[in-house]
Specification:
69% of the residues lie in helices and 0% in strands.
C-alpha cells in the first residue's frame, strides 16, 4: 500500500477497515454453522441445490490447495534462513535448475523440506494437535515482537517511513485507498465462505461472533504495524525499504555474529511455525472437509489433506508469487467468484429463508426434497451467482491488460462488494418472483441442540450397542 502511494497511517487505516469488514463477512456466513452445526458443504445446499453445491465446494477446495502451495513456499523461505543460520555455506549451494524455471536449487530444497516435515501434522485430527496451535500462539508473536525491537535498535529509531507523506493526491488517492481495502477483504475471501466448517464447533452461537469479529482486525493490525515499522527501519539500515520480513532477516545474516545467527534461527523458526499452523487450519483442513463432501466414499479429511499437500507440491507455487502484482491480481480475480457464492448464501439465509433450515432435508437427495432444485441444481442460486460474476468480468479484463471503459474499472475496484451485493440482490428478487419451498415469513432460526451426554453415559451406550449387535 505504501509503495502504491499511501502514507503509513493511511495504509494502517486500510488494514483496520478492510479486515473489520472481512470479520463481519466471516461472522455473517459462520452463523449458519454456529446455529445448525453444519459445515459449508451442507450449508450451501440450501441456496445452490443438493448437487449444485458441488461447484462452490470445488471452488473452495481449489483455493485451499493453491494457498497450501503458496504458504509452503513461504515456509520454505523460513527453512532457508534456519539452515543458513547454522550452516552459512548453504547460501552457496550450486544451482542446477534452469533459470526459466523460476526457482533455484536452494529454494526448491527448502520448499521441499518444509513440505516434507509438514506431512506428519496432517495425519492427526486437528483437536489432537491443538497444543501445536497453543505453542504457535505464544512463540510466533514473541518472535515477531523480538524482530520488531531488533530492527528498531539497529536503526536507532523508527525510520523515515513513519514521517513519509502520501505520494498520491485527489481521486487517485481515493481509489488507491479503496483498492487497498478490497485487497484486505480479498485475502479473506476463501475463509469467509467456509467459516461454517469451524463455527459449527462453537459451544454457543455467540462464541463464534465476538472472538472472530475482534481478533481478525486486531491481529492483522498488529502484524501489519510491525511490518511497517520493520520496513521503515530497513531504510535506515540498508538504504532501501525491504517489505518482505524474510528478505530482511536474510540481510541481517550478512556478517552476523554467532549470537545474531542464533537470534535469526529462533525468529525464522517462529515464522515457520506460523506458516505450518496457517497451512493446517486454513488450507489442509478446508481442502479435506470439502473433498470429503465431493467424494465421501473415497475421501476422508486426512486423505483430503494429503491430496491437498500433493497438489500444492506439484503446482510450482513460485510461479504464482513471482511478483506481488501477479498475486494481487490473482487474489482479486478469485474473490469475484467467492464473493458471488457468499452473496447467494447470505441472501438465502437472511432474506429469503429468514434463518430457517430443515437439517434433515439438507442431508436428503430425494427429488421431491425442498432443497433439491431441478436435477439437483437450484437455478435461483446459479442465476444470481453468474450475475455477480458478470458485473465484474469486464473490469477483470482491464486488470490483466485489456482496454476497457473507465466505469468497468471502477466497478472492478469494488469487486467483492459488487459481486456480493449483485448476487445477493438478484437471488432475493428471483425468490420473490418465483418463491422457494420451505421458507419463513418471519425470523425463525431453530438452533440445533446437541444432547449433552457424559463420557460414562457414552461408554455405557456404546457397550450396550455392542452387546446388542453381538446378540443379533
Amino acid at each position: 500500500m505504501i509503495v502504491d502511494g499511501l502514507s503509513w497511517w493511511q495504509s494502517w487505516l486500510c488494514v483496520w477497515i478492510g479486515y473489520t469488514i472481512a470479520g463481519l463477512f466471516v461472522c455473517l456466513i459462520g452463523r449458519i454453522g454456529a446455529i445448525y452445526r453444519i459445515p459449508f458443504a451442507v450449508a450451501n445446499r440450501a441456496s445452490f441445490g443438493i448437487w449444485g453445491s458441488f461447484w462452490p465446494i470445488l471452488n473452495r477446495a481449489s483455493m485451499a490447495v493453491i494457498w497450501y502451495g503458496v504458504q509452503t513456499y513461504l515456509g520454505g523461505e523460513c527453512v532457508t534462513l534456519m539452515i543458513r543460520s547454522i550452516w552459512p555455506s548453504y547460501n552457496n549451494l550450486p544451482n542446477t535448475i534452469p533459470a526459466g524455471a523460476g526457482v533455484t536449487t536452494q529454494q526448491f530444497v527448502s520448499f521441499f523440506l518444509f513440505w516434507l516435515f509438514s506431512l506428519p501434522a496432517l495425519w492427526f485430527p486437528i483437536y489432537k494437535i491443538r497444543h501445536l496451535f497453543t505453542v504457535k500462539a505464544y512463540f510466533s508473536p514473541a518472535c515477531a515482537i523480538a524482530f520488531f525491537g531488533w530492527a528498531i535498535a539497529r536503526a536507532h529509531g523508527l525510520g523515515p517511513i513513519i514521517t513519509q507523506p502520501n505520494t498520491v493526491q485527489g481521486s487517485t488517492l481515493a481509489w488507491v485507498f479503496i483498492k487497498s481495502i478490497m485487497n484486505c477483504i480479498a485475502n479473506f475471501a476463501a475463509l469467509v465462505i467456509n467459516n461454517p466448517d469451524f463455527a459449527r464447533y462453537a459451544r454457543k452461537p455467540q462464541d463464534a461472533l465476538l472472538p472472530q469479529l475482534i481478533t481478525i482486525p486486531v491481529g492483522f493490525a498488529i502484524t501489519s504495524f510491525i511490518g511497517i515499522i520493520v520496513s521503515s527501519s530497513s531504510t535506515v539500515i540498508f538504504n532501501q525499504p525491504v517489505w518482505n520480513p524474510l528478505t530482511l532477516l536474510g540481510m541481517f545474516l550478512e556478517n552476523a555474529t554467532s549470537a545474531e545467527r542464533f537470534g535469526i534461527f529462533v525468529i525464522s523458526s517462529g515464522f515457520a511455525l506460523a506458516q505450518l499452523g496457517t497451512n493446517i487450519a486454513a488450507n489442509s483442513v478446508s481442502a479435506g472437509t470439502n473433498l470429503t463432501a465431493l467424494l465421501p466414499r473415497f475421501c476422508t479429511i486426512r486423505r483430503g489433506g494429503y491430496f491437498c499437500a500433493a497438489i500444492g507440491l506439484a503446482m510450482c507455487p513460485w510461479t504464482l508469487v513471482a511478483s506481488s502484482n501477479n498475486f494481487t491480481i490473482y487474489l482479486s480475480a478469485y474473490s469475484v467468484f467467492l464473493s458471488s457464492i457468499a452473496g447467494v448464501m447470505s441472501s438465502d439465509y437472511y432474506l429469503v429463508r429468514k434463518g430457517y433450515l430443515d437439517i434433515e432435508k439438507l442431508y436428503s437427495a430425494q427429488k421431491e426434497g425442498p432443497y433439491y432444485g431441478i436435477y439437483g441444481v437450484s437455478w435461483h442460486g446459479y442465476a444470481a451467482y453468474f450475475c455477480g460474476i458478470l458485473i465484474n468480468i469486464v473490469g477483470f479484463a482491464g486488470a490483466v491488460g485489456a482496454k476497457v471503459p473507465a466505469g468497468a474499472a471502477y466497478i472492478y475496484n469494488l469487486n467483492y462488494f459488487t459481486g456480493f451485493l449483485v448476487a445477493g440482490g438478484v437471488y432475493w428478487i428471483l425468490a420473490i418472483l418465483w418463491p422457494l419451498p420451505l421458507t419463513s415469513k418471519s425470523w425463525n432460526e431453530v438452533p440445533y441442540e446437541v444432547s449433552p451426554l457424559s463420557d460414562l453415559e457414552m461408554k455405557k451406550e456404546g457397550l450396550e450397542g455392542a452387546e446388542h449387535m453381538e446378540h443379533v
